[in-house]
Design brief:
The protein is about 70% helix and about 0% strand. By secondary structure, it is mainly alpha-helical. The protein folds into three domains: about 55 residues, no CATH class; about 30 residues, no CATH class; about 220 residues, MetI-like fold (Orthogonal Bundle), CATH 1.10.3720. Helix 7 packs antiparallel against helix 8.
């Protein structure tokens, strides 16, 4: 998964202005999509390589689950490392954590820098960029657009994910295992490939052209694209909830004369509410910050989501990079809050399962 996502990464090479990678070449080829077959060929090649790596990894490394083997009779007891070994491990993991946090620190410093040139730290500090980022003529509409796109995507993912989870967990259909695989497929298929596929199918005369309004708004198109990308989150959360819920509760309600809709509304959904809420929080948060779909499917400035507005600010003259960094700080804060909320809901659903 790391190889596939790195191989198809679009945002990083764009930020570093390195065009000689396949994702950037695909993005550049969109300008002449009707006359240039190169983006189609590159996208097919990327899909074949990513799919081949995924299938190869499954063939080479997929074995029986460890949980199927007998459990060992003895339990290992953690032992505290003393002396230089303890210090060595502490420095090792502290270094890894510092390296992982370094880009975030750089974004924060850039967002509060008034003047930063040829020095390790900014010479001047200011908080004006944080306020200006939220008041920019480009940023405010992009936040509204992202909220609309992510809201629609979360609703679609909730309906599709809950329905798929019900079929996978509660039905005896032969296709339920295939459905389970299909709902998880967006994690393996690169987002760049999916986004380009939606763009190709939404051209005039193509099946998805109805998802683009007469004014060129990609509201429905981006909502559907975001929903498919984040469908696995909601589906897995719903499946986990259904596994915790005792089917005899639903059977008892049906035996007492309750209809299928009444059983779903009064028994199943209340028991699944915390699981579905946690999945929806993650789906909404990551839809707000989706990169590939946003950069490829949103072509006009009035339709830009927040991620494409951030990229556009980076290329602006003056304090554009500082405003983009400030918007990035707000995005990090939003994502952190969403992850904390999902963790709290995960703890709540754990309490429900224990009861």
């Amino acid at each position: 998964m790391v190889f596939i996502w790195a191989f198809t990464e679009l945002g990083v090479p764009l930020v570093f202005d390195f065009p000689r990678v396949a994702p950037v070449q695909i993005l550049d080829g969109i300008k002449n999509l009707d006359r240039n077959p190169l983006p189609y060929a590159l996208t097919t090649l990327v899909l074949l390589i990513a799919g081949g790596v995924f299938l190869l990894s499954k063939l080479l490394f997929e074995r029986r689950r460890i949980g199927a083997a007998p459990r060992p009779s003895l339990r290992s007891t953690p032992q505290a490392l003393r002396g230089w070994r303890g210090w060595a491990c502490s420095f090792l993991f502290a270094g890894i954590a510092a390296l992982a946090c370094l880009p975030h620190v750089g974004v924060i410093l850039m967002s509060i820098s008034g003047h930063w040139h040829n020095s390790v730290l900014p010479v001047e500090f200011t908080l004006a960029h944080w306020q200006e980022a939220l008041g920019s003529a480009l940023v405010v509409p992009s936040i509204q657009n992202s909220l609309a796109y992510a809201g629609l995507a979360t609703f679609i993912a909730l309906v599709m994910g809950a329905a798929a989870a019900w079929v996978i967990s509660r039905s005896d259909l032969r296709i339920r295992h295939l459905l389970d695989t299909l709902t998880m497929l967006p994690l393996a298929v690169p987002g760049l490939v999916l986004a380009f596929g939606y763009l190709s199918l939404s051209q005039e005369g193509k099946p998805f052209a109805i998802l683009v309004s007469a004014g060129g708004s990609p509201f429905l198109l981006l909502g559907l694209a975001y929903a498919v990308r984040r469908l696995p989150y909601v589906t897995r959360a719903a499946i986990a909830g259904l596994q915790y819920c005792d089917p005899t509760l639903e059977q008892a309600a049906r035996s007492m004369g309750a209809s299928a809709w009444s059983t779903l509304r009064r028994i199943s959904l209340p028991l699944l509410s915390a699981h579905l809420a946690a999945g929806c929080v993650l789906a909404f948060a990551f839809s707000m910050l989706e990169v590939s779909d946003s950069l490829i499917l949103a072509q006009r400035a009035e339709h830009f989501p927040i991620t494409k507005a951030t990229f556009a600010l980076m290329s602006a003259l003056g304090d554009g990079p500082q405003l983009a960094a400030a918007l990035g700080v707000w995005s990090m804060a939003f994502l952190s809050a969403a992850l904390i909320g999902a963790s709290l809901l995960n703890g709540k659903r754990g309490g429900l399962s224990g009861e």
